[in-house]
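Structure tokens please, single chain.
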Amino acid sequence: MGKTGVTRAIVLLLVILGAVGAACGQGAHGREYWKAIQANHYNVPEGAKAIVLAKELSGYLKLSDSELRDDFAYSILAEWILHKDVFSKEELLAFEEEWRGNLKAGIGENGTDTIFVRSFSALCLSTIAERELKNPFLGEDRYRKLLEAALGYLREEKDLRGFDEKKGWIHATAHTADLLAALTQHPLFTKHDQAAVLRAVGGRLETATVIFSYGEQDRLANVMAAMAGRANFDLAGFREWLVEMNRSDRAVWKDSPPKLEGLQSFENDTYLLNAFVAHVSQEEKAGDAKKEVLRALAWR
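Here you go.
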């Protein structure tokens, strides 16, 4: 069978699988339909409209089913946003608005399935922010709204679970860090914004009721590394932030044994700083920031 014949066969298979999925009550399309798209290098099926399929996938972000939510919805949407260029500016803006609104859906709840739409909307927004870096389309007002929403979500999210053996990745802190890491590289990101990000990162670690164990500190360190590599990096403000972090963490050891909540914060901070050093170890632009962090780590 030639290349044309193979392509036609895949298209026919996708149509059949879509009908089967609908008949089985799996939404407009069944699981095999999405698997076939992935097998076909994420190309939009012939005769299908990317925006229609994307809206269906976006609806999967709220599901506790990790295959539909993560393997299909996020993976396909990310590929289409970042590499396939199948959406218009208006369509991308509509998704940005929808996902940004999702960050407040059920906010304040802890341990419920509402976490999925918040966390995976943040992750999808990170692809929007990455796309913005390559080909700007948000505009200043949208960019500022998205940055404010990301910072607010990092502060307000109560559900800090990383992974569930039945429902898969949850990872809200890491997903928000991915979003912020992209936003901090934008030309519109200011020195004032740097201080706001540091406050949000520090506050997230200080108020966490767990010692993060799924790489969250590393992803947050990537945000700081992105800032440290900027031409307008506020080294003095960064130094002040580190001094305050050390002051707070030193107080933990006044109690013997230390109180759990203080120890959790201390460990999260220490992991964050170590991860930051690793991130910037080969970055000359971040050399001064690295020195400040190494000083902060010296007594830990």
